[in-house]
Write a structure and sequence with these properties.
Blueprint lengths: L1 H36 L3 H4 L6 H7 L15 H5 L4 H11 L1 H8 L5 H21 L3 H4 L14 H13 L3 H4 L13 H7 L1
């Protein structure tokens, strides 16, 4: 009798374990699909305000070039490692608020906030040693001998000083913002 109850109890635990395991796989799969679906340029520009960014990107060598290799929003703005990627997506949910509130829904409003937004991105890139840039570009694999003298000197100096891509290449994919005057900065505090 006790053996039969024990076997039935054990069988229930196994069934629950299998159910939880399969459920976990399904949840993980759906989660992965959701993360990847939100990791596209199409998703990024589904907010009206982000079309300004895409227009700018399309005029740069990172989008329109002889080799046909292009980048999209996630290539520069979303880390590839899972935990940093999830953190970046969590932080990006604030953009939903700004889209609803119309904070940057016109080019004028966008440009008024451009300095602040650009600096936030540059600080993040500096903190991560421009890891998104380095996914495609690396000092170790640059053939400095084929670069013009100016670029070669700058890249040699950057290597020597431990600089990162964003130290020199701000505005590489989007228009550089105008630095606000001291009066504007004081008004914003």
């Amino acid at each position: 009798m006790i053996t039969n109850e024990f076997q039935q109890s054990r069988k229930k635990w196994w069934l629950w374990g299998i159910f939880i395991f399969i459920g976990g796989i399904l949840v993980a799969g759906l989660f992965t699909i959701a993360v990847e679906m939100t990791n596209t340029t199409e998703f990024c520009i589904s907010c009206h305000t982000m079309t300004i960014n895409l227009e700018e990107l399309k005029t740069t060598a990172h989008y329109n070039n002889a080799s046909g290799v292009t980048v999209g929003c996630p290539d520069c703005h979303v880390p590839r490692a899972l935990v940093p990627k999830l953190w970046a997506k969590l932080i990006a949910t604030k953009d939903i608020y700004h889209e609803i509130m119309g904070t940057i829904d016109t080019r004028e409003k966008y440009n008024a906030n451009r300095w602040r937004m650009a600096n936030r991105v540059w600080e993040k890139m500096k903190a991560t040693q421009s890891q998104e840039c380095r996914h495609c570009h690396s000092f170790e694999h640059m053939d400095l001998s084929v670069q013009d003298r100016f670029a070669r000197k700058k890249h040699e100096r950057a290597v020597d000083k431990g600089e990162t891509c964003i130290d020199c290449h701000q505005g590489i994919a989007h228009e550089l913002p105008d630095e606000p005057s001291k009066k504007e900065v004081n008004l914003g505090q």
